[in-house]
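Please predict the structure of the following assembly.
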Amino acid sequence: MDTNQVNDLILMHRGAEADLYLTQVGPWKAVLKRRIEKKYRQKYLDAWIRKERTTKEATMLGEARKAGVRTPTLLRLDSEESSLTMSLIPGKLARDRLDIMKPKAGEDLFQDLGQQIGKLHRKGIVHGDLTTSNLIISEENTAYMIDFGLASSSIEAEDRAVDLHLLRRSIATSHSFGVEKWFKALSKGYTDSLGHRDSASVYRKASEIARRGRYFAIR
Amino acid sequence: MLCLGIESTAHTFGASLVDDQGHVLSDVNDKYRPPIGQGIHPRKAAQHHADVAASVVGKALAVKDNGPLLPDTIAFSAGPGLGPCLRVGATVARTLALYYDKPLVPVHHGVAHLDLAMLGSGFSDPLAVLVSGGHTAIAVHIRKNWRIYGETQDITLGNLIDMFARSSGLPSPGGPTLEQEARKGNKLLKLPYTVKGNDVAYSGLLTAAVRMLQKGESLQDACYSVQEVGFAMLAEAVERSLVQTRKNELLLAGGVAANNRLKEMLQQVANEHDASFHAAELSKSGDCGLQIAWSGQLAYRSGITVKPSESHVVPRWRIDEAEVPWIPIR
């Protein structure tokens, strides 16, 4: 089995910063993610950002998996090409799935997701871009976190709170109902996983961040 | 149906007459300019506004030779903005409304930026990017409000530019000079690039850029780098939002929309994703009476008026808390 061989690229999805291709690595179906050149960015800045994020993503994917968080498995990294190859997670993006989800299934999903986020944070990692576009809901109704390009090592309540804040806002701006209940379920899972003391300070920061946006809109 | 709009949120005192089709009969603006190295002093700006108010409003109404035109409604910038400045505009508007017995219409300054840009664009359902001294926000219109999709987590893009300009001895507002100097720079200084999801943060970039100047980097290279890094951050957040919302129109409004490099970047983002792009025209991107007059027309048409006795100013009026029922729901 030659895991260095990546062939038969089929374009699956064009994201904001990367193209995703369906491919095969050895016996596994896999996804090749290539960060594409952004013409609006100055050349050196662009090259630096793409390389930095790709390497970061590879490291963080590995760390998250070690912490027991459900993510794709990293199969291959090519930092010069700004690309990495991961195992394919069959399922749908949360943004496309949530609107047709039954309330109870939604609550189960979010409570479990809360635990997953708690595990990630306990390991000292924050995702940095936790939105419904970066969550895959698998066929077994469990959430997988993807896209760790903006992830970083941190145990600061502030950084952890950004994860919760971004997720909440992305649910609130794209999905009109269920938000409060789902978030309650998520908080329950998160508190269970991270513990009362640590999670309480994260919730405090999260509401502070929401307020901060509010008060900075002057003029 | 004529609306007189009065702008008085920050450095500009403006008055404009516009009809219900969006035809501009007048747009008269007078800017308070702080001394080099200083920002806007709210009380001094308010004093300036009070000094020029009568002549600005007089000129805005004097569009015919045979005496001033009387507006049918009077709109004013009720917020957000600097309290002392807002109160000058509100006082003038209330006085006119009471004297002529005309309806008084409160306008949100940021919403008004978007309304004026919308008028020029012909767009119906854009992803809107509002960049000024008071706002750095990426918004979509849902039901009766603009909803924030991404924004700055600390200072605005306008703040970044003005504060950087101020600390490097450029005149205020710093935008035009910064852009000129940036064209002469070509060395990219290493500045923090902070994108958090659809949000950006600029205060670290400001501190680092000022420090680079102190360390002896040239003004030109510093201006160039502030633009390249600061705008690329916003462009990336906009691109993410565009992909997530799947909108096919991209609208740029607010004072910083005058910057050609920013326009160029967002045009490229729009091209990448087959979206149309429109930036507010130069004469309509900065603060002006016209934005208030046009937004006032739209608000009045939707039945929004306020009694003079209850017409308080709201210095920290958030854009997603302003009702905007005049944009059709899809």
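The two ends of chain B are 28 Å apart (CA to CA). Residues 32 and 45 of chain B are 6 Å apart (CA to CA).
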